[in-house]
Write a structure and sequence with these properties.
Blueprint lengths: L1 E2 L1 H23 L3 E4 L5 H8 L4 E5 L2 E9 L6 E9 L3 E2 L1 H4 L4 E5 L3 E6 H12 L6 H9 L3 E8 L2 E12 L7 E9 H5 L5 E5 L1
Parallel strand pairs: 1-10, 4-7
Antiparallel strand pairs: 2-3, 3-4, 5-6, 5-11, 7-8, 8-12, 9-10, 10-11
């Protein structure tokens, strides 16, 4: 399956207005500052996986937004932005929170707790050969199982075949795992109805 990067980027930008309405009307934030102009200063923030700043109860948070058209009950983590040379947002990002939008809910995920669990516990359980296998296979998704705390847990290795309207093709590779895996291991996740 081919992933059109420009279409995906445009879709994400279209979601910004809906997200801003959610921040104002549901979360009651007092200020929103977006970094979406592709200016040099905005690109600095984008490279840190910070899409915007929101001020809530007098506290400003660096936020990374993720949008999914369906709630699969799992969290997707981008391991490689461009496999195998450029690491994904889970490695390079520095937001305070990830706001993970699905059609009916938004998940507030505290980045510090997510990062600690991923780097200390989850990622060492995932052999790097799994990324190479899916890359070489050309498949879009492969299911695997990891053993954590005596329990076998299904994760998916997901590959997007990016085909821009101009330029060179590349593959983005990530993993998805159930929200329960993260919540049961200390990742702070708050689900908010839209």
């Amino acid at each position: 399956m081919v992933h059109n990067f420009e279409n995906s980027l445009n879709h994400e930008r279209e979601q910004a207005d809906k997200a801003d309405n959610f921040y104002r009307n549901i979360m009651k934030v007092s200020e929103i500052v977006r970094f979406n102009t592709d200016s040099p200063s905005d690109m600095v923030m984008q490279r840190e996986d910070v899409d915007l700043l929101i001020t809530l109860n007098g506290i400003t948070f660096r936020v990374s937004e993720k949008f999914r058209d369906k709630d699969y009950g799992d969290l997707y983590l981008e391991m490689y932005s461009k496999y195998p040379k450029i690491e994904g947002w889970i490695h390079t990002g520095s937001p305070n929170a990830i706001l993970y939008f699905t059609p009916n809910s938004v998940y507030w995920i505290t980045h510090k707790s997510l990062s600690a669990f991923c780097f200390q516990i989850l990622f060492p359980l995932i052999p790097s050969v799994w990324y190479q296998e899916i890359h070489n296979s050309g498949k879009s998704i492969v299911s695997k199982k990891i053993l954590l705390n005596g329990e076998w847990i299904k994760i998916n290795i997901i590959q997007a075949h990016n085909q821009p309207t101009s330029g060179k093709n590349w593959q983005t590779i990530g993993i998805s795992a159930p929200f329960s895996l993260f919540e049961n291991n200390g990742v702070k996740i708050k689900k908010i109805q839209r």
